[in-house]
C-alpha cells in the first residue's frame, strides 16, 4: 500500500514538474531552406502547446541575421548550418547542437546539360550565395581537394541570398548557380511556366555537391550541413528540449511523407516559396534526423576539413563535447 502511494505521489510530482516548465513564449527560427519547414508544421499543429503559451516562427534571411538571433537572444531553437553553430559555440555563445537533419541539399543549376562535375565548370562564372558560408565553404573545400583554386579556376559571383542567385540565372545574367533546395526547384518551376518560359533559359540539375564530396574525400555521399540548435537559458530546461526533439522528429517525418501538403503549408508562412517548388524539392534533399551526439563522428570529419583551410569557419578549433546536446 505504501509503495502504491509512493508511486502515485511520484507520478503526480512528475506531472507538476512538466506543467511548471510551461513558458510564456518559444521562438523557433530558421532560413527558407528545408531544415526550417518542420518548425512551421510544429507551430501549425500546436505540437509544443504543452510547454509554451505561445510559439512563433522567425525567418532569418542571411548568416548575419542568424548570428544576431543567437547572440542577442532572438530565438530559443534555431535551424543552423553546423559550422556556424560550432563557430558561435567556440566564441562563447550559449548554444548547443541538437541534431543534424539535412545531409544533402546543394547542387549547381546550369544552362549547359553537358556539365556533370565541378571540374566541368572550370573557367565558368558561377553565382554563389552567402560568401564564406555554406554553400561557398563546401564548394571551396571540394575543389581545393581536387587540386583546383576556387578563386583562380572559377569566376565566383557572390550574392546575398539563394533567391538573388536564382533570379540572376532566370534573367540570363549568369549561366550557372550553386543553390540549395528549394531554390533549385523554384528556378526550374519558374523557367518552365508561362509566360516566363518564353524568355527564360532551359535549366538542368548537375550532380549534387554531396556526391562530389563523397568521391573526393572517399566517404559516404552526405555532408552534415545543417540541423537544430538550442540557444540560451531554454537549453537548461531538459524537459522542453526533450519535447522539442520529439516533435521536430515527428514533423520532419510528416514533411518527408506529405510533400504536397508540406508545400502548401510552407507557402503560407514563407510566400517567396511556391507550394509546388517546395513539394518538388523534398525528394532531392537528403533528410535524416540524427542526434548531435550520434552525428559527432561525421561532424568532426567535416569540421577538420574546414579547419585545415580556414580555421575561422568553425571558430578556430573543434568544439568540445558540451557542444553536442
Structure description:
By secondary structure, the chain is an alpha/beta fold. Helix content is 42%, strand content 21%. The chain has two domains: 2-104 and 225-323, 3-Layer(aba) Sandwich (D-Maltodextrin-Binding Protein, domain 2); 106-217, D-Maltodextrin-Binding Protein, domain 2, CATH 3.40.190. It has a five-stranded mixed β-sheet with strand order 2-1-3-11-4, sandwiched between helices. The chain has a three-stranded antiparallel β-sheet with strand order 9-6-10. It has a two-stranded antiparallel sheet with strand order 5-12. Residues 1-19 have low confidence and may be disordered.
Key terms for this structure?
alpha/beta, 12 helices, three-stranded antiparallel β-sheet, 2 domains, disordered N terminus, D-Maltodextrin-Binding Protein, domain 2
* Major sheet: arrangement of strands: 2-1-3-11-4
CATH architecture of the largest domain: 3-Layer(aba) Sandwich
Q: Fill in the CATH topology of the largest domain.
A: D-Maltodextrin-Binding Protein, domain 2
Quick one: CATH class of the largest domain? Alpha Beta
This entry's quaternary arrangement is single chain
Q: How confident overall, as mean pLDDT?
A: 90
Shape: globular
Number of domains: 2
Strand/helix succession = HEHEHEHEEEEHEHEHEHEHHHEH
| Unreliable stretches | 1-19
CATH-wise, what's the superfamily of the largest domain?
Periplasmic binding protein-like II
Summarize the main sheet.
5 strands, mixed
Which class of secondary structure composition applies to the elements? Answer: alpha/beta
Cα separation of the termini: 40 Å
Amino acid at each position: 500500500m505504501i509503495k502504491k502511494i509512493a508511486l502515485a505521489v511520484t507520478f503526480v510530482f512528475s506531472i507538476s514538474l512538466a506543467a511548471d516548465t510551461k513558458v510564456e513564449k518559444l521562438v523557433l527560427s530558421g532560413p527558407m531552406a528545408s531544415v526550417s519547414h518542420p518548425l512551421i508544421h510544429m507551430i501549425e499543429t500546436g505540437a509544443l502547446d504543452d510547454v509554451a503559451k505561445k510559439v512563433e516562427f522567425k525567418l532569418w534571411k542571411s548568416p548575419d541575421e542568424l548570428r544576431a538571433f543567437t547572440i542577442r537572444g532572438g530565438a530559443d531553437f534555431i535551424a543552423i548550418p553546423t559550422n556556424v553553430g560550432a563557430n558561435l559555440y567556440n566564441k562563447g555563445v550559449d548554444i548547443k547542437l541538437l541534431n543534424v537533419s539535412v545531409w544533402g541539399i546543394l547542387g549547381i543549376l546550369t544552362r549547359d546539360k553537358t556539365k556533370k562535375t565541378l571540374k566541368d565548370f572550370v573557367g565558368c562564372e558561377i553565382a554563389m550565395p552567402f560568401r564564406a558560408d555554406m554553400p561557398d565553404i563546401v564548394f571551396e573545400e571540394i575543389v581545393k581537394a581536387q587540386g583546383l583554386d576556387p578563386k583562380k579556376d572559377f569566376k565566383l559571383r557572390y550574392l546575398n541570398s539563394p533567391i538573388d542567385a536564382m533570379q540572376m540565372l532566370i534573367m540570363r545574367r549568369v549561366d550557372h548557380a550553386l543553390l540549395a533546395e528549394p531554390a533549385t526547384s523554384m528556378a526550374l518551376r519558374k523557367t518552365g511556366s508561362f509566360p516566363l518560359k518564353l524568355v527564360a533559359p532551359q535549366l538542368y540539375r548537375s550532380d549534387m555537391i554531396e556526391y562530389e564530396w563523397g568521391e573526393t574525400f572517399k566517404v559516404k555521399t552526405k555532408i552534415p550541413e545543417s540541423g537544430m540548435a538550442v540557444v540560451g537559458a531554454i537549453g537548461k530546461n531538459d524537459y522542453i528540449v526533450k519535447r522539442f526533439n520529439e516533435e521536430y522528429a515527428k514533423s520532419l517525418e510528416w514533411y518527408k511523407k506529405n510533400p504536397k501538403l508540406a508545400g502548401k503549408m510552407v507557402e503560407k508562412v514563407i510566400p517567396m516559396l511556391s507550394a509546388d517548388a517546395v513539394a518538388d524539392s523534398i525528394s532531392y534533399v537528403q533528410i535524416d534526423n540524427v542526434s548531435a551526439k550520434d552525428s559527432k563522428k561525421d561532424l568532426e570529419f567535416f569540421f577538420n576539413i574546414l579547419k585545415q583551410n580556414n580555421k575561422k569557419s568553425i571558430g578556430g578549433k573543434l568544439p568540445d563535447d558540451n557542444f553536442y546536446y
